[in-house]
């Protein structure tokens, strides 16, 4: 259990960035402050920490940089930091001026467990406006070799990578301040060569708006290089003769901000975040742009020996990876997803030459969204809304509520309203195949269910033939993942499926957004949509004979959990035990973290590890073991979310006759059956 909950076992690494007060030209005092932070990092289980540029001496020394007292003091301070790090976990990136031969370099020393692993000189020296570093320093561009420190030859150059030999995926690269601002930052080549964590010791004086520029660069470079990017700027104590300093500290990962400190601090600021090495590895593997032959780099190995205990997880794991919690971002995603659906269907209607859109309407989420898409596409094509042919098709278990919602929605939208009772035809088919239900026996098996689902689709196709239309599919991404659709002549098939790329958890929010947006009609539409989105999710294929209304989620699992798993399987290829670990972090405490806007209070619930494990097993069996053949023959439909698509012509290709054995074994072997803590 302890190993299961260890962040390092699960492929994370704890990274830190620190700004701290500096005393100009007093390296020994500055070195003691660095050691104090290193001890704190050790207690927190930090793998690597970066300090500001020239932090052992201070950046704003000007000509004092040439003074032997300062240079000798920097060497002595580094020696003490190295000695003090002997029993500490964290790799430290410490800035100082160093003389090599007769040249002075602006350097970052990489220190770990009583050893200088290497020294990286600054490549790009700014000479514009307030900067005049070439007056003092020599550029490290194309430098490679060694430097003599404490009686040893230490690797020196811009071609250094630092690899944890006992931690898969943890490879450190260093660039210094201005290196990030140039057209081709060194971190690009470092990342291509394998660096997953870039540490940037920076000085960077502040002017109005500059912090946004820095943040943009860190975000963009972490996204472009698929790295974790830790940035530490100088702050308190630097000279304010002509400049000011804000001590900006941040950690980004693949374009996502993980942690940042307040600016203009008085005293030390340390930010800590757990970066996802497995995520970076998976993303890189898919691009094929990393690890290719190119510039030669030297790799310096070290043994991290991280703690394999439960240290918690210092990062947010979102409950709904398809649904942003931020209201503005959620509204954007709803608008873009909806608009992609509409534009895709409009194009298909134009290309097909169809004059009608045929939609089966159940009063549930999926058919509601498909109908709304069809209505908007008709509006944009200049069609009367009566060219959208909406059919509700009651079966043996159709409820009064869903039927009334279907009619209310169709009438409010102004489409052609139709009701087609499938029960007589279903009764005939059941009798024809000798099913006991036709003889009055209460047998509600899968054949009984699929006869109804199949007939609905069969009717819609024949209606489309007769009325010069195409059938608009309603099944969503989550249902496709779980195989929750009737194959062939059933809800798996359509002429064009607008919902194929939309996960169930996002559909709810798109409908809520449309209910409040009010662009599809009067307030009646919005009121109906609110009722639909709050209703129980049910296929309505099995009559209630005392067992209660048929619940989809009681059979295939809660959609929030299953969409969580789907995202991490589809986007990142994570192993089941890791998904369970992440799910427990995200879902074990309903009071922790954020929830999407307008999410119903009564649905803000928690799941313990036992429940997570159970429904994850259900997902694995259905996704890998029994459902791929349905996805291999799915109709056209637009990709909507960056998490991926299940179209065989899009993101996901898999054999229809595969098995779930390997995934189930990994789950069984590595995930405890209960949530009992040691």
What does this molecule look like?
The chain has helices at residues 27-44, 68-84, 186-192, 210-225, 277-287, 327-352, 365-381, 400-413, 423-432, 446-467, 477-482, 504-517, 523-533, 552-556, 559-572, 576-587, 609-626, 628-632, 661-670, and strands spanning 12-19, 48-50, 91-100, 103-111, 116-121, 144-149, 152-157, 160-164, 171-174, 197-201, 228-232, 249-253, 256-260, 269-276, 298-302, 356-360, 388-392, 416-419, 469-473, 496-497. The protein is an alpha/beta fold and 678 residues long. It folds into 2 domains: 12-302, Nitrilase/N-carbamoyl-D-aminoacid amidohydrolase (4-Layer Sandwich), CATH 3.60.110; 327-670, 3-Layer(aba) Sandwich (Rossmann fold), CATH 3.40.50.620. The strands form 4 sheets. The chain has a 7-stranded mixed sheet, with helices on one face. It has a 6-stranded mixed sheet with strand order 5-4-3-2-1-14. β19, α11 and β20 (496-497) form a beta-alpha-beta unit. α7 (365-381) packs across α12. The longest helix is centred in the middle third of the chain and has 26 residues, at 327-352. The mean pLDDT is 94.
């Amino acid at each position: 259990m302890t190993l299961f909950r260890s962040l390092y076992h699960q492929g994370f690494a704890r990274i830190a960035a620190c700004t701290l007060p500096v005393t100009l030209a007093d390296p020994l005092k500055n070195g003691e402050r660095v050691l104090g932070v290193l001890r704190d990092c050790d207690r927190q289980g930090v793998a690597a920490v970066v300090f500001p540029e020239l932090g052992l001496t201070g950046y704003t020394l000007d000509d004092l940089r040439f003074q032997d007292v300062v240079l000798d003091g920097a060497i002595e301070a580094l020696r003490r930091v190295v000695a003090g790090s002997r029993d500490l976990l964290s790799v430290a990136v410490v800035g100082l001026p160093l003389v090599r031969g007769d040249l002075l370099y602006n350097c970052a020393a990489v220190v770990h467990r009583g050893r200088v692993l290497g020294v990286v000189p600054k490549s790009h020296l700014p000479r514009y406006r307030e900067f005049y570093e070439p007056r003092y320093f020599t550029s490290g561009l194309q430098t490679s070799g060694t430097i003599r420190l404490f009686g040893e030859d230490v690797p020196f150059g811009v071609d250094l990578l630092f690899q944890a030999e006992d931690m898969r995926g943890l490879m450190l690269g260093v660039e210094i301040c201005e290196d990030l601002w140039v057209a081709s930052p060194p971190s690009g080549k470092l990342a291509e060569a394998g660096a997953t964590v870039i540490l940037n010791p920076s000085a960077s004086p502040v002017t109005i708006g500059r912090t946004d520029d820095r943040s943009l660069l860190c975000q963009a470079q972490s996204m472009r290089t698929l790295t974790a990017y830790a940035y530490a700027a100088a702050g308190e104590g630097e000279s304010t003769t002509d400049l000011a300093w804000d001590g900006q500290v941040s950690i980004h990962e693949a374009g996502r901000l993980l942690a940042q400190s307040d600016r203009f601090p008085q005293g030390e600021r340390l930010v800590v975040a757990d970066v996802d090495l497995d995520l970076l590895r998976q993303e890189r593997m898919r691009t094929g742009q990393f690890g290719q032959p190119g510039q030669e780099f030297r790799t310096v190995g070290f043994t991290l020996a991280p703690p394999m205990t439960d240290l918690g997880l210092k990062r947010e794991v979102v409950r709904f990876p398809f649904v942003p919690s931020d209201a503005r971002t959620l509204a954007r995603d709803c608008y873009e997803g909806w608009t992609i659906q509409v534009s895709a269907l409009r194009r298909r209607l134009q290309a097909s030459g169809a004059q009608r859109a045929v939609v089966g309407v159940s009063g549930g989420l999926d058919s509601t969204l498909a109908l709304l898409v069809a209505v908007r596409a008709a509006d944009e094509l200049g069609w009367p809304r009566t060219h959208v042919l909406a059919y509700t098709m009651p079966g043996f278990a159709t409820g009064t509520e869903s039927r009334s919602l279907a009619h209310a929605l169709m009438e409010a939208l102004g489409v052609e309203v139709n009701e087609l009772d499938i029960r007589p035809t279903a009764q005939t088919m059941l009798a024809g195949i000798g099913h006991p239900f036709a003889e009055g026996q209460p047998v509600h098996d899968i054949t009984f269910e699929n006869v109804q689902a199949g007939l609905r689709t069969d009717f819609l196709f024949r209606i489309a033939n007769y009325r010069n239309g195409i059938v608009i599919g309603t099944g969503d991404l989550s249902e496709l993942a779980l195989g929750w659709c009737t194959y062939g002549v059933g809800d798996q098939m359509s002429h064009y499926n607008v919902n194929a790329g939309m996960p169930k958890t996002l559909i709810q929010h798109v409908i809520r957004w449309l209910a409040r947006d009010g662009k599809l009609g009067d307030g009646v539409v919005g009121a109906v949509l609110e009722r639909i989105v709050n209703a129980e999710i049910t296929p309505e294929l099995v009559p209630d004979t005392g067992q209660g209304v048929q619940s989809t989620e009681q059979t295939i699992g809660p959609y929030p959990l299953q969409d969580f798993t789907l995202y991490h399987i589809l986007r990142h290829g994570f192993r089941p035990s890791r998904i369970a670990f992440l799910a427990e972090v995200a879902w074990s405490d309903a009071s922790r973290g954020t929830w999407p806007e307008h999410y119903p209070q009564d649905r803000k619930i928690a799941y313990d590890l036992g429940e997570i494990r159970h429904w994850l097993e259900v997902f694995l069996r259905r996704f890998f073991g029994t459902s791929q053949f349905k996805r291999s023959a799915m109709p056209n439909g637009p990709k909507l979310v960056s998490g991926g698509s299940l179209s065989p012509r899009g993101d996901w290709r898999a054999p229809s006759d595969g098995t779930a054995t390997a995934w189930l074994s990994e789950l069984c072997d590595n995930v405890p059956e209960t949530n009992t803590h040691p």
